Amino acid sequence: xxxxxxxxxxxxxxxxxxxxxxxxxxxxxxxxxxxxxxxxxxxxxxxxxxxxxxxxxxxxxxxxxxxxxxxxxxxxxxxxxxxxxxxxxxxxxxxxxxxxxxxxxxxxxxxxxxxxxxxxxxxxxxxxxxxxxxxxxxxxxxxxxxxxxxxxxxxxxxxxxxxxxxxxxxxxxxxxxxxxxxxxxxxxxxxxxxxxxxxxxxxxxxxxxxxxxxxxxxxxxxxxxxxxxxxxxxxxxxxxxxxxxxxxxxxxxxxxxxxxxxxxxxxxxxxxxxxxxxxxxxxxxxxxxxxxxxxxxxxxxxxxxxxxxxxxxxxxxxxxxxxxxxxxxxxxxxxxxxxxxxxxxxxxxxxxxxxxxxxxxxxxxxxxxxxxxxxxxxxxxxxxxxxxxxxxxxxxxxxxxxxxxxxxxxxxxxxxxxxxxxxxxxxxxxxxxxxxxxxxxxxxxxxxxxxxxxxxxxxxxxxxxxxxxxxxxxxxxxxxxxxxxxxxxxxxxxxxxxxxxxxxxxxxx
Length: 509
Fold this sequence. Notes:
Blueprint: H1 3-9, E1 12-13, E2 16-20, E3 23-27, H2 36-43, E4 62-68, E5 75-81, E6 94-96, H3 110-117, H4 127-140, H5 146-152, H6 164-179, H7 197-208, E7 213-218, E8 221-225, H8 229-238, E9 243-245, H9 251-256, E10 264-267, E11 277-279, E12 283-287, H10 292-302, H11 307-311, H12 316-321, H13 324-330, H14 337-343, E13 347-352, E14 355-360, E15 365-367, E16 370-371, E17 377-385, E18 391-398, E19 409-418, E20 421-430, E21 437-438, H15 440-446, H16 453-466, H17 477-496, H18 501-508
Parallel strand pairs: 1-7, 2-6, 8-10, 9-10
Antiparallel strand pairs: 2-3, 4-5, 4-6, 7-8, 11-12, 12-17, 13-14, 13-17, 15-16, 18-19, 19-20, 20-21
Helix pairs in contact: 3-6, 15-16, 16-17
């Protein structure tokens, strides 16, 4: 019997299989929490990929993952942070590093040539990460604008160049590509003609795909990566104390920073049932395994008011790995998606074994990182009501940096008026309490009242009864109180048509 048939006959795979430079890599007996960065630097001695922060903030460790796109004929490339990506999650994917881009004859990729010719590297430590972020942009957006470039580089920090020559290189790389007879990039390793190279890689990745559950054991650690939701439900029910791993953008830090041991991991990233997005007349239904970057376009199609919020949500490598379901289930009091989703009336579908139930998102959080999930239960879908005519929504994020920073306060608001009176209002904040939380006293002070200056200022005072914020390295408690109130006032000004600058100035005093 052929090896591939034998693999498919086995209900569980026991080797991580992925492509590196066009060649299949098969790994067994690996620590499930070993990071891709550790594997590259310590096992393969690919030291181009750097470790800067080990928490997904600086971008020095950026690599690119390639997977077949929806057509199955082309590739979809994503820049991710290798410092918090666990090695087994590479299964069925192509891994690309800065070393992968140089041609066999030593010819640099257009991205690398552009960075060199534009003098966009000084100490060089961050440069490989910039190369990989720009490479992902180069392959996915051949007509990138300046804004596209800025967004693509938001997850890469540099302390030498001032970024201008890096942006120059980003513009130059396209002209280098146009002047080249061949792409001169990583696909040369796949074999075949230039036009067929991506399809060659696609076919290899499809061959690696398998319907079996990946199951690894290393010492007392276990790792499971099911392919369907029924197997996932069975595993979670049988291992109620297991850590459910989605994008790993938070769990990765548990290992890299807190040095925590995770005896059992159940990875949801290969479960096709969790990757779908559907819409009906009333609801946008997003699978819990859909990444932030894949979920955002669907959200913005219906709620364009949230564009800046999600543009500032972490960084592209984090959004490429982190999932909407993971952000919600994590229960962080400063998760940026939750206040907005709460004010929209979002509901969660939860599953335990063969049983499912629905729960409003604002009832999901019980205490600091404590949720209503029962042992053996997990989030399957996020159900977001579609916009109602006449309803205004906004969400504002306050942080020290515009890009890639954690919120000090994130406020979200939704109001529906009946003439000048408030028919319905929902207000939620992150950063003011131990959980993302609605401002119920504040809402009650506005409900059935006129949407005017007096009512809003009275409601602002009620926020002191809804929240008792703490002070920390990001902001003092007093600052958080004041900002929380001012965000409500900002929402009022934007939705009431008020243009009385004098009154705004007087209030600010």
